[in-house]
Amino acid sequence: MPYNDLRKGRVSIPGQIYFLTAVTWGRTPWFEDFQLGRQVAGVFHTLALAHPGLSLAWVVMPDHVHWLVQLPEGLSLDQLMQRFKGRSARALNAARASRGPVWQPGFHDRALRKDEDLLSAARYLIANPLRAGLVPRIADHPLWDAIWIQPPVDRTSVRRGG
């Protein structure tokens, strides 16, 4: 599908929740390399700090990312993805000491309807590594985050009284 066809009918509504997907150039599985995946995770965190309330959940797959966002005022979907792709491409190219495209043009977006369960959408998003057969448990996939889920407590470092 040509890039311009992806943009037809795209509407950016502040406060609306969107499910976004971006795919690497040529579906290259760069994020099988954990260090490269961390570069993308860092960009998600940077954008979340710059726009509080923006990032609800995300997951980095070997050749694509999924991101659940609540679009802030003053930022369109195109602007948001341009920032994400630009920053992450610069970080990835620096980490790989290379140049060239990282992401395919365009992205997929789907606005969540008001009657859709937001938590279910986030669970679906972060379960992608399970459905893809990458890991047996989501806790085994290190490249995801969601605002509703706290990291597990490392019980080995907890001292017991007594």
Keyword list:
sequence-specific DNA binding; Transposase; 17% strand; globular; 34% helix; disordered C terminus; RAYT_transposase; alpha+beta; Alpha-Beta Plaits; disordered N terminus; 5-stranded antiparallel beta sheet; 162 residues
Describe what you observe in this structure.
- The chain is an alpha+beta fold and 162 residues long.
- Helices cover 34% and strands 17% of the residues.
- The N and C termini lie far apart (65 Å).
- The N terminus and C terminus are likely disordered.
Terminal-residue CA separation: 65 Å
Give the helix/strand class.
alpha+beta
CATH topology: Alpha-Beta Plaits
The count of domains is 1
Largest sheet: 5 strands, antiparallel
CATH structural architecture: 2-Layer Sandwich
Report the sheet-strand fraction. Answer: 15-25%
The low-pLDDT segments are 1-7, 153-162
The average pLDDT score comes to 88
- Can you count the helices? 5
Task: Work out the radius of gyration.
Answer: 17 Å
Strand order of the largest sheet: 4-1-3-2-5
Strand-and-helix sequence, N→C?
A: HEHEEHEHHE
Give the total of beta strands. Answer: 5
